[in-house]
Amino acid sequence: MLETLKTPSPLTDFFGPIRDDLAAAERIFQQELTSEVPFIRELVAYLAHYRGKRLRPALLLLSARACGQVTPQHHVLAAVVEMIHTATLVHDDVLDEATMRRHVPTLHARWGNSASVLLGDLLFTHAFYLTSTTGSAEACRIIGEATNRVCAGELRQIGERGNLALSEDVYHEIIRGKTAELTACCCRLGAMFAGADEAVVHALERYGMELGIAFQIGDDLLDLVGTENKAGKSLGTDLEQRKLTLPVIRLLQTASAETSHQVRQLLTETGNHKRERLLPLLQSSDALNYAAAEAEQHAAAARDCLAILPETPYRTLLAELTRRVVRRQA
Amino acid sequence: MLETLKTPSPLTDFFGPIRDDLAAAERIFQQELTSEVPFIRELVAYLAHYRGKRLRPALLLLSARACGQVTPQHHVLAAVVEMIHTATLVHDDVLDEATMRRHVPTLHARWGNSASVLLGDLLFTHAFYLTSTTGSAEACRIIGEATNRVCAGELRQIGERGNLALSEDVYHEIIRGKTAELTACCCRLGAMFAGADEAVVHALERYGMELGIAFQIGDDLLDLVGTENKAGKSLGTDLEQRKLTLPVIRLLQTASAETSHQVRQLLTETGNHKRERLLPLLQSSDALNYAAAEAEQHAAAARDCLAILPETPYRTLLAELTRRVVRRQA
User: Which end of chain B is more exposed for a tag (fewer CB within 10 A), N or C?
Assistant: First the structure.
């Protein structure tokens, strides 16, 4: 745990008003994952190196505070959503064969396929066990359902790999599943367990959904135009994996026959430097601005959902988050 | 679903007395996993080709019947344990890079790493969601905890790969985790949801634990001495993965310095035919009989646990299962 505290995330200060709540959730996360088996301890300790922004527990706790109270159940559930998110990161690195995350080698690169698959499974199953300790079958249902939708979204993305005719609609369904269902679930649980009424729970769930969509479009943009040094992870993996994201879909929709041919060839051939070669084509089209505007629209929709809440520093932070997820792309 | 019914398991007749209960659980399994996404439908449909004996749902349902009643919750939970077992099979094939299971190519061999990892995750998460629909946070806790122990057992096994000094004690802890925790959980849930009193629940949980250990020792023996044609799956994978199982541990403990050297060399070098070359060494030692006797002891211990139950056809079947899991090795 010391290790975790030594490497604070850039959002640590940002989340100042819920610092104590985040620390409580982090203690649960660490305590729950202690093990008597040295190999498991070693793998779990390594996770501290590349866990990130604590966005999901923060969403859950901010939603709770914005609705008036944080209970011990909230701290448990905040640890749960971080555990689930960490499980998906570990498995994502297996899928993408990624070598770097947050400036260090991925678990997959260091311990291989088997250990990564099983560590992800260990985190998923522990998260479900931990949810049940709240005594709420409803929390188990919400967490189980959201996590299942995350997997279905990711699986659908795999199924659409190499589909150069992928539509914007299917892209949206995929990112809604793989990212936004979990952020929506965080906000819903935060509000629900604070005793908020149904309209507020629904508004915060919607906020989480829109924020998640904006965040994922931003992430997909970063994978195309970001710098590996700043991002701290392998980029261009979507192209390597032949996963079409919004800017590329837009480019293919609007390009001349010649450019479109060029893009299709680039996406289907094997070999490196796909990202570098695609970039000028993206830049001379409206694709990057189109995707950024789409992200901004969803962020604005998320902000609108917050009107139902009383004015508090927590609501202000939730609103500020909708700006941050979009600003990342610049 | 038709596909599933067309390929009955050799245990279908054996489980005759709970045929209707198994069919109800199977309907839930199939209905729950329907999907609007063709790719997911295709993967799920393929699972029917290599799901096997339905041992875990049968244990849950037999335990329930042996305690007096089967409820709709039992059918749901029987589908849950089959889903969890199927998830572990799908991920096991990824870990072992196995190419065949139940006489057909594995999902991993056909659709690759990514689809297999995510399909396993989809099954795990769906199983947890489905558990929550019983409305029992206690069921969620038991399922979450048991599944977590399965993963920890498998992870520990990975960590001990290549450890030629693996002790019998650690071997037992590993197989208890990776196999017996789930069979114990099945019997416990069956008894609990039938309203059995604590002593009976405990006895059946113990039965499931001992049966699972006997079963896994049998499986490990099969991996060394079985024929691929009968087993319908890749064999010798434990040796390929440098996982020491009971017969090999015993052989290394009892062999002469010369034989021990030979075995160690065989296990550490790369190359094929490990199984064929190890077999004569195993056969000229007591290792195979030793492991078979150990399996028989655990099977007998499982039988002893059944004394607390009234005499019914279901108790008879539970007792008969303890003979079958051992007889497989002959």
Answer: C
